[in-house]
Amino acid sequence: MSARHWAHVGLTAVLAAGGVSMLSARCARADDYSDLLDILRAKGALTRVEYSTLLARHRHHAVEPASAQGSRRGRRAEAASDGAVMPAVVAAQRAADSAAASARAAEASMLAARSTIDSPSVVRVAPYVSGKGLTFKAGPIDINFSGFVNGFYSYNSPGHGLPVAGGLSSGGSGFDSSAVRNGLLPAGFVLKLSTTQSGIDMSAVLGLYPGLNNANPGAFNANSGGSPVGLGTAGIDLRQVYLTAGTKSFGTVKLGRDLALFGSDAILEDATLLSVGSTGSNAAPANTSLGRIGLGYVYADWIPQISYASPVIHGFQGSVGVFQPLDEFNYAGHGLSAESTQHSSPMVQGKITYSFKIGDLSTKLWSSFLIQHQQGLTSSLLTQDERRGAMAEAGEIGAKLTYGRAQAVVYYYRGSGLGTTGLFFDGVAANGRKRDSEGYYVQGAYNFTKRLKLVGSYGVSNLYLASGDTATGLVRRNQSEVGAGYYDLTDWLKLVVEYAHTQAAAHNGNSASDNTVSAGAILFF
Fold this sequence. Notes:
InterPro entries: Porin_dom_sf. Helices cover 19% and strands 40% of the residues. It is an alpha+beta fold. It has a domain of 309 residues: Porin (Beta Barrel). A hairpin with a 4-residue loop joins β18 and β19.
């Protein structure tokens, strides 16, 4: 029979046969009964209702008037009742012991199961947080897999225009174009492994960014432009390969290829990052569109680096690093700019950010700089033997403000030898003198509902001629206006519609413009 059955038998016998003894003046006898009930309840032999009922019945009997029998007769009755009670009590105790043994066995099984679950050989899945990817825990190592996929239909219609060297408008092509393509983002699949060893937080990151359209590898690799012909394949942009190590008090050191510091906040706060913006070449799409690159800021780029980021102290954070130096590049062609492939020193970049909140207004400010020495400049007017060099310099400042449902971004940059669109594109004239450049963009957004956001922005990038520069056909200004709507259909899926107007103007008066309408979706996981 079960332990609970024997407990009930014993307690019934105690109540039936031990009434006289429980009514005696021996308080120890009453205490023994209460203790027995407590033991059986603790061992699981009695339910809470059974325990309460028996205890109440015991207390009721304990307060009844004592019998008027003589002491000798009382002792005989007590002895007789003890004889009747003892077998039941022994049976109940055995049942309690059996229940205790079962409880110990169950506890041992539970501890063994917990030890198995906590074993480093068992891979567990962390609770999913929307937008943070999937995280698996293998002992002390977190393995995170995240990413995004997007696709858009873009229709581009050029206006009348004349060629502009280095211009970003398709206005001079004279043909409308349709494309199914990526936006400013390609697809992305990011794997991150992180752990803590000897008090040091460390991680390794690998990011793969494939496009939708056929690649036509050139100077920009997967970003060189498309090749819409049969049997083509898409390009893969392996832009992230880096490790980090640091502590909360020291900060973090990064070694590898990742987004640079100068211009990084400008593109990350740009709303066209989630849409198309200016298309670049819509007739033969590359891995990505331009968005607002070259139309308000210079592309930050993904550059090999050794950088350091401080901990955040009262809203302030500083970052500095040495980066792989990049060539001075004649993007406009036709011999309009000097080039350089010699670098005896690295590129240096630094940035400081400050975030704070006043009431309902949240503000983020940032400023950064860039320096790189270009050596051995060559052009149609210069030979490498002349050993001409140029020190490229640039600075930027920006702010993002959020108040309730409204957001605003303002940004400005200025450089000497920096160039336009990409780092060091047409930054030095053919005569070896540096060209100045500057640009800005302003952006406003409003969340009309939790799911619907409308955004408008305007941006300009200017490139000025150097002293003695004769490249009048070179771009003087690229600018665009963008209006877009973003609707969160689910936590993962965002629908996008957008209109963009792009213009380019040269120093000789040539100009071109185009209009683009895009619609599509982007999915984050």
